[in-house]
Amino acid sequence: MTARTVVITGASDGIGAAAARQLAANGHRVVVVGRSEKKTRAVAESIGTEWFRADFTRLDDVRKLALDLNAACARIDVLANNAGGIFGAAKRTGDGFETTFQINHLAPFLLTKLLLDKLIASRATVIQTASVGARLAPRIDLDDLNMERRFESMRAYSASKLENILFTRELHRRYHDRGLNAVAIHPGNVASGFGAGTDNRLVRVIATNRLFRRYVLTTPEKGADQLVWLSEARPGVDWQPGGYYEKRKPARTSAQAADADLARGLWERSDAMAG
Ligand SMILES: NC(=O)c1ccc[n+]([C@@H]2O[C@H](COP(=O)([O-])OP(=O)(O)OC[C@H]3O[C@@H](n4cnc5c(N)ncnc54)[C@H](O)[C@@H]3O)[C@@H](O)[C@H]2O)c1
């Protein structure tokens, strides 16, 4: 197989780090992106690859990351927008947006847009690590993407993961005929750093309890399976762009995820917000 250039965000930990290790072992050029310089550097050095640091609570970091990636990579065959998580109480970033919304949706939206020319020229695959949790999302209110009316960390998380799927659909609608292959996935329920810092007690207990981690959740390596598979497989042959996958198979999600007007509206609002 030809070696590909694969950029993975959230690759300092968990699923992203496991995918980076596997793809590097398979001979690809992997670019590791993370928030913590120390952890990101450690992962990159352990697999002998490049790394960049960006904190997605700062859109200026995302803009700088896009500039760096555009300069460092002649082509990008795969962009895995994997960074994300469930966080605590309602909080605004310095950019003025609700934190979960910005980290999980707005930052990867902006990064993808700033890399778009290169992604199209490379006929790239763009993967969103979404979640089965998107099924629990409340009705997305385009006039209240910051959830000012009723914030709760699980509501914000599930909405952001639905937004990952809506973004995938709209990316596909706009750019598939120019060669872009967009896909969203649920990675499985994985024992990673996910959920450790949330104020949602149930999620925190499941995510941190030793027995749950050992017997109920799966490993980061298994959670990375679809990122690795989609990075190497042939779009349009091995999998169909535009959709949502679980365990390497197209999967159903909620009716909202298929709402084309909502996907278009979210794109337009995100564009205006990200500037
Ligand atoms: N673990 C699960 O069970 C599970 C289930 C469904 C979906 N997911 C999704 O998988 C993805 C990876 O999560 P994981 O399980 O590996 O968790 P993790 O906590 O181990 O890793 C999360 C990664 O996201 C990065 N990140 C978090 N906040 C960031 C910020 N402000 N700026 C830049 N990067 C930031 C972290 O640095 C880390 O590299 C997430 O998008 C998560 O929503 C996880």
TrEMBL record:
Q: Which InterPro entries match?
A: NAD(P)-bd_dom_sf (IPR036291), SDR_fam (IPR002347)
Which keywords does UniProt give here?
Oxidoreductase
Instruction: Determine if Oxidoreductase is one of this entry's keywords.
Output: yes
Tree of life domain: Bacteria
- Which named protein is this? SDR family NAD(P)-dependent oxidoreductase
